[in-house]
Write a structure and sequence with these properties.
283 residues; Rossmann fold; 2 domains; 6-stranded parallel beta sheet; 10 helices
Length: 283
Amino acid sequence: MSELIKGNLLAKKIKEELKIKTIELKKQGITPKLAVILVGNDPASQIYVNHKEKDAKEIGFLTENQHLDETITQEELLSFVQKYNEDSSVHGILVQLPMPSHINSDEILLAIDPKKDVDGFHPMNMGRLLLGNPQMIPSTPHGIMKMFEEYDIELEGKNAVIIGRSNIVGKPMSVLLTAKNATVTLAHSKTKDLAKLASTADILIVAIGVAQMVDETYIKPGAVVIDVGMNRNAAGKLVGDVSFEKVEPIASFITPVPGGVGPMTRAMLMEQTYLAAKNSIKG
């Protein structure tokens, strides 16, 4: 039976620490402020935004939630981003993805001031990560690395397999693991014999977006399994990309869904908003 990696408890611990740090920062005249832009009425995106806003307020941050109609033009959306770039009271800018199909997401993300890019998706921040000098790190991979640290999971020399090659999770995750001297394979839906490859992993990170796809045939006994997936099954229950019931008896560590990676993603957004505010003192 594996040990649960309780991301929700670690996230709570991080947020409590941020509360204390924020009180100290306020004494210097700086209150961290997060601006969130949501375009359209996607229910899941609205839930995510609400959670982020709740986290920020609990820590003591200021927030500004800009909910825009899905018919907004590219130019109008860019003007909101620019407004927050120029507002010195705003330290973090988060544009909730996905955006409507007529919006060029890459152009919007490129327009965000890299110092305020708390999601870590700006090409400059991605480049700094690749070069080993990160400033803002994509929140989900960042949160996973914090979980490895908290649970004393050794990465050096380990065989790590990541299923999913997105810019949000897979690619930055591979860079962070490589920096810790793991040997990394970045797999995806076109990988041949995916289950066989996955079953060689000491560390398996699954971000493929298919509910409960990964079963016991993908798992090396004693592997550490990180489930990034967030899906609804036929019964409407929230499940991951990993079949928890089949994999949990085989793994040494496993993240639950919910309560695993998700809370850590939000905690890293808060941490980077705090750091952006702190760094603003330096100019």
